Amino acid sequence: MSNRSIYLTLFLIAGILMGGGLWGIITHAEPIANTLYIPSRAEGSIDTYNPEALYQIPANAGQVFSVFVAVNTGDLKLDIMLLDPAGNVVAEDTPVAAGASTYAIEAVTPTEYGNYQLIVTRVGDTSGDYIVEITPVNAEMIMHVQ
């Protein structure tokens, strides 16, 4: 028996002992974070089997950016949250307008270098497709507006 077969067998036995066999391992796996760079855009789907999506955003300290999530299809309602590299909540979404299907976290200024985590989660039993966009923000423009 090869080392590969031994490792696979041990993996499956561990899954069975933890309750659920191979299906338990698959259904209890942590979501995988996709990387989104500043700027970038990605499409995703949220449903019963995928109730949330995780994205990591590598950012430098002082690199101001905004996050926009627009619902394309379905009855999807969302909560979006941005965490710093230590896992602390930096910002949460605000709907762009009442009843709107676009959500935003605007003008985030990272205080440290690292991977920030964007969590997109459905509200209730809603489902559908969405587009997430990460855009850089010109810091000089923010100062003129304030």
Into which percentage range does the β-strand content fall? 35-45%
Which structural class should the secondary elements be placed in? alpha+beta
Specify the oligomeric state. single chain
Q: Mean pLDDT, as a whole number?
A: 80
Order of strands, widest sheet: 1-3-9-5-6
Helix content: 10-25%
Q: What string, H for helix and E for strand, traces the elements in order?
A: HHEEEEEEEEEEH
From the spread of the alpha carbons, the general shape counts as globular
The radius of gyration computed from the alpha-carbon positions, rounded to a whole number of angstroms, is 19 Å
Helical stretch count?
A: 3
Report the biggest beta sheet as strand number plus sense, adding barrel if it closes.
5 strands, mixed
Uncertain runs are 19-30
